[in-house]
Amino acid sequence: MRKCVIIGAADIKDYARAKNYLRKDDFYIFCDAGLKHAEALGMKPDLIIGDFDSYSKEEALKQGIETIVLPCEKDDTDTVFAVKEAMRRNFAEFLLVGVIGQRLDHTLANVSILYMLDEAGKQGRILDDYSEMQLVSGSPVRIDDTCAYFSLLNLSGQAEGVTITHAKYPLQDAAIHCEYQYGVSNEVLPGETAEVTVTRGKLLLIKIFA
Q: How far is CA 131 from the centre of its chain?
């Protein structure tokens, strides 16, 4: 199954790192001004989506690529609509790039997409210049020692049965409540692969690049 890569308009400084996550046979959705990244990423859109409040609609349409034009006044952001459209097309794995930027409201809204995907039984990751994000819920997640740090954040309710192995700060059957974030800046033991499991609830895993 092809991975769906959704490109947003937030700045990308490290294109080389981003390209390591991309494959030619991925399905690429560029959202509005995310089109500014197409040349640097070396990938062409399969689908363009946007209300074109930050990119020329005429420039997008003249590419001759399938384009969905959205109204400016709507409930879904361009990125959320793109994810929903890709789910309608039966994609199961998602990578979001260019969706973490200076607008904290947009950043938090885009992080919440990981929860929407998880609820739908899909796999989702977010990549920015400094980190990679995904959810830990029903299945164990492994973390190799190439990342400098990793953090586990609970954004809602209480996560229970939290177990971390092969890390500097291990946990066994612990609880992390959204009001007290003590799972920040852990480290994988050298030469090891850490593993995180959660029996109830969800945790946001953020792997920080070296």
A: 10
**Rounded to 5 degrees, what angle do the CA atoms 167, 170, 172 make?**
140
User: Is the distance from CB of 206 to CB of 150 less than 8 angstroms?
Assistant: yes
pLDDT tens digits, 151-200: 999 998 899 999 999 999 999 999 999 999 999 999 999 999 999 999 99
H or E segment and range at residue 40: helix 38-41
Q: Is 210 helix (H, G, I), strand (E, B) or coil?
A: coil
H-helix or E-strand containing 79?
Answer: helix 78-88
Residue 109, helix vs strand vs coil: helix
Task: Report d(CA 22, CA 16) in Å as an integer.
Answer: 10
Question: What is the SS3 assignment for 186?
Answer: strand
DSSP SS3 for 35: helix
